[in-house]
Design a protein that fits this description.
This protein is an alpha/beta fold and 471 residues long. It contains 16 helices and 19 strands. The strands form 2 sheets. A 12-stranded mixed beta sheet has the order 8-1-10-19-18-17-16-15-14-11-12-13, with helices on both faces. A 7-stranded parallel beta sheet has the order 4-3-2-5-6-7-9, with helices on both faces.
Length: 471
């Protein structure tokens, strides 16, 4: 998926916000028909590139998404591509009616007895705005066509998903090879389970203005090299508070060493075993060890445990007043009243997110991004709700969504690596939101650098390569 530093092209919109953006263009002089032409021609060019002149079938619905499909079909026909349109129902909006009238090719009305096959199927049945399942007969038509075409392209969104939540409204919906977003990204492009069905993502720009308060796509990390006069403390001293299970904290420390901090210090509860010679390990009381004023950030949670000793170590980390990353077991122990004023990042997975919601009196309702925002507001921390659809949220309700990362990250210990990267970036930047964003990006890029079937220790080693790509 191509990313852009242009705020207008990185925003992720709800259905209501997308309608407002389109209305803004119309108020400025555009027509619905002209916007449909722009979107359809942009999408048609992408489909043309995929089909390489071979047969294309376009499935058109009754609304403006179907109108986009007619424009795509006309674009292909004008370039000599054999194209057939299937319209189970005729167009119902003025713009879609106009687009249908402008297409001079073959249109099969209704549900054909024999489904045409081809190289590429274009799903323009329904786009964003769908809130209920596609009717059974139309869904059978869609899935039947998907079965007899080699490539599958969804226009704006796959039909059968909820744009705002990413819910799959029609169970059994097959996956697509490509989804072409029109005008702006939608939340379903990044939110599971719909994101898993979308395939590669491309965006067609129609000139929509930035919408205030909209979520954005995670940008590429932009890491500056150390200053010419840098030394280890100026670059950032990171203290990691270990616990009863030393392996997790050690993984975090190994990753943090490659993510930019100038000095990583592990405050161990138990012997971590063999460690790299450049990793400083202290067997000290955290309340004492964290009194060093040179500490730029603290990580607590990986391998901490959940007993009384673990609570004491968490309390020491909270009381020290340093910028803090809270992960793993520490998230299960955190409660209201322990918030403090220091900058903090919480990095929960799904189970930890639910536990935090219970602990802070939140109902856990709604989609993942809404839950992350409410938790950020309740805790005063930046929240990285991690998983295959990672969401970053701030107490000010700013939301950043991460593109799909490698599924090979689904292995034990990769969360500890992420915590170490975020904490290292916090030690460098002192900015919790920037550290969270850079950490998530570096984590995903490290997975790309590592390749398939890696262990968490391999991922930690690859952080250096990911950092190089961000310089």
């Amino acid at each position: 998926m191509a990313r852009s530093s242009d705020r207008n092209l990185s925003q992720v919109l709800t259905v209501a916000a997308m309608r407002a953006a389109e209305q803004g263009l119309i108020d400025a002089g555009a027509s619905v028909e002209s916007l449909m032409e722009q979107a359809g021609h942009g999408a048609g060019a992408l489909v043309h590139r995929m089909c390489a002149g071979r047969k294309v079938t376009v499935l058109c619905g009754p609304g403006n998404n179907g109108g986009d499909g007619y424009v795509i079909a006309r674009h292909l026909l004008e370039r000599g591509v054999p194209v057939t349109v299937i319209a189970p129902i005729g167009p119902r909006t003025p713009a879609a009616i106009h687009a249908r009238a402008s297409f001079a090719g073959v249109v099969l009305d209704g549900v054909p007895a024999t489904l045409p096959d081809g190289e590429v199927l274009v799903d323009a049945l329904f786009g964003s705005g769908l809130t209920r399942a596609v009717a059974d007969d139309w869904f059978a038509l869609l899935t039947g066509l998907m079965a007899v075409h080699q490539r599958r392209v969804a226009i704006d969104l796959p039909s059968g998903v909820d744009s705002d939540s990413g819910a799959v409204l029609n169970p059994g919906l097959p996956g697509f090879d490509l989804t072409i977003a029109l005008g702006a990204w939608k939340h379903a492009h990044f939110a599971m389970p719909a994101a898993a069905l979308s395939g590669a993502l491309r965006l067609v720009d129609i000139g929509a203005a930035a919408i205030s308060g909209a979520a954005t796509v995670l940008p590429m990390a932009d890491v500056a090299p150390p200053a010419a006069n840098a030394h280890k403390y100026l670059r950032g001293l990171l203290a990691i508070v270990g616990g009863a299970m030393p392996g997790a904290a050690l993984l975090s420390a190994l990753a943090a060493r490659h993510a930019g901090a100038g000095y990583v210090r592990l405050i161990a509860q138990t012997d971590p075993g063999a460690v790299p010679p450049d990793l400083v390990v202290l067997r000290d009381d955290p309340a004492h060890a964290l009194g060093d004023a040179r500490i730029a950030a603290v990580l607590v949670g990986p391998g901490l445990g959940r007993d009384a000793v673990a609570r004491e170590r968490l309390n020491a980390a909270l009381a020290a007043g340093h910028p803090l990353v809270i992960d793993a077991d520490a998230l299960m122990l955190l409660r209201p009243g322990q918030a403090g004023e220091c900058p903090r990042v919480l990095t929960p997975h799904a189970g930890e997110l639910a536990a935090l919601e219970r602990g802070f009196g939140l109902d856990g309702a709604g989609c993942k991004r809404d839950r992350a925002v409410r938790l950020a507001q309740a805790t005063g921390a930046v929240v990285v709700a991690k998983g295959p659809d990672t969401v970053i949220a701030t107490p000010q309700a700013q939301v950043i969504v991460a593109p799909r990362a490698s599924p090979w990250l689904s292995v034990a210990g990769t969360g500890d690596v992420l915590a170490g990267i975020v904490a290292s970036r916090l030690a460098v930047t002192r900015d919790p939101l920037r550290a969270a964003c850079e950490g998530v990006w570096l984590h995903g890029r490290a997975a790309e650098c590592t390749g398939p079937a890696f262990a968490a220790s391999d991922l930690a080693d690859a952080v250096r390569s990911a950092l190089r790509a961000a310089l």
